[in-house]
Specification:
This protein is of the alpha+beta class and 101 residues long. The protein has one domain. Strand 3 and strand 4 form a beta hairpin.
Length: 101
């Protein structure tokens, strides 16, 4: 939980760099060291992650998944492979159309 990252530059443990299975153009994704094994399990089950954070001891670890349909499977994986409670999110783009006033 004392991982060094963009939002926790004073952490002691460097983030781990992993090659994502879903993007052949992307060289790596930086993942907090203390959650890397759990993220690897999500990837093993072909769950695409858009973002993740260990919470740095201040909040629950969290993950943003690509498909809302993967949320329940991700929660089950967390129950089995991790003793901490996770927050699972999915980014959604909401478009509003109409005239500007």
């Amino acid at each position: 939980m004392d991982c060094k990252s963009a939002n926790n530059p004073d952490g002691k443990t460097d983030a781990i760099l992993l090659k994502p299975f879903w993007d052949s153009k992307k060289e790596f994704i930086s993942i907090d060291a203390c959650i890397v094994e759990t993220i690897k399990v999500l990837w093993k089950f072909k769950i695409v992650t858009c973002s993740c954070c260990c919470g740095h001891g201040r909040r629950n670890p969290s993950v943003v998944i690509d498909e809302a349909s993967d949320a329940e499977q991700a929660r089950e994986i967390f129950k089995i492979f991790c003793s901490r409670e996770w927050d699972v999110y999915q980014w959604q783009l909401n478009l509003v159309t109409g005239k500007m006033r």
